[in-house]
Amino acid sequence: MVDLEYYDKLLLAIAGSLALGAGIGLLTPVALSTGVAGGSILASVFVYDAMFRSPPIPRETVHRAMAAIVWHVFLTVTLVSALA
């Protein structure tokens, strides 16, 4: 059995959340865009944990702030397109 580290598990949780949302959108009457939007919201919990609660790098970096901005822009665009 492969021993996964904490951040590997977080990456799997993010991918699993998005896949779960897509699966719900494909296999149920819920629209695909709505399912992916829900999966994105769930994935944002894991992104928050990885970036703000226990980041693997020092807390004061420009890259971390930029990644947070990019993720939230992606999440906003996904939610707006799901609601449109």
Describe the protein in words.
By secondary structure, the protein is an all-alpha fold. It has one domain (6-83). 79% of the residues lie in helices and 0% in strands. The chain contains 3 helices and no strands. Helix 1 packs antiparallel against helix 2 (32-53) and helix 2 (32-53) packs antiparallel against helix 3 (62-83). The longest helix is centred in the first third of the chain and has 22 residues, at 6-27. The N and C termini lie far apart (44 Å). Pfam families: DUF8015. The chain crosses the membrane at residues 62-83. InterPro entries: DUF8015 (IPR058328). Keywords: Membrane, Transmembrane, Transmembrane helix.
Write the layout of secondary structure elements.
Layout: H1 6-27, H2 32-53, H3 62-83
Helix pairs in contact: 1-2, 2-3
Highlighted features:
mainly alpha, 0% strand, single chain, 84 residues, flat
At a glance:
The protein has 84 residues and is mostly helical. The protein is 79% helix and 0% strand. The protein has one domain.
Query: How much helix, percentage-wise, in residues?
Result: over 70%
Compressed to H and E, one letter per element, the order equals HHH
State the secondary-structure class: mainly alpha
> What spatial form do the alpha-carbon principal axes imply?
flat
Total domain modules: 1
